[in-house]
Amino acid sequence: MRRPNILTLILSVMAVISSGTVFFRYAEGWSWLDAYSFTVVTISTVGYGNLVPVTATGKIATTVLIFFGLAIFAVAIQQFGVFAMRKREEHTEWLIGRLGHRNKDDPANTDKEPEE
Asked: Structurally, what CATH architecture does the domain formed by 6-99 represent?
């Protein structure tokens, strides 16, 4: 399975947020800020409950937004986690290479206790 591009994920999340904001602005008659806030709160699963769609179209669109928006949002968060984990692994490998890996059986290891 091909790993999604970070730019593609960012653009996908922005597209979902933008389309949700525009939809709720006109379908529910909310302000731009309220529509944006509702969209972000919905796809991030926070769900404050201070805004609720009242039209049938708004309610149906909210369920669609939840399924598609949450899926895209979850993949984006997962991929950013993978990216952070890979960076940490690269840093760990760099540290091991830089500091060296000391083996107890290595004769060059000067940390050996003297034999009696």
From this structure: Orthogonal Bundle (1.10)
Contacts of 27 (CB under 8 A, 6+ apart): 53, 55, 57, 58, 61
Report whether pLDDT(115) > 80: no
Contact 109, 102 (CB under 8 A): yes
CB 24 within 8 A of CB 53: yes
Burial class (CB in 10 A: 0-12, 13-18, 19+), 66: middle
For 91-103, the DSSP string reads: HHHHHHHHH----
| Interval 36-94: pLDDT, tens | 999 999 998 888 888 999 999 999 999 999 999 889 888 888 888 888 898 899 888 88
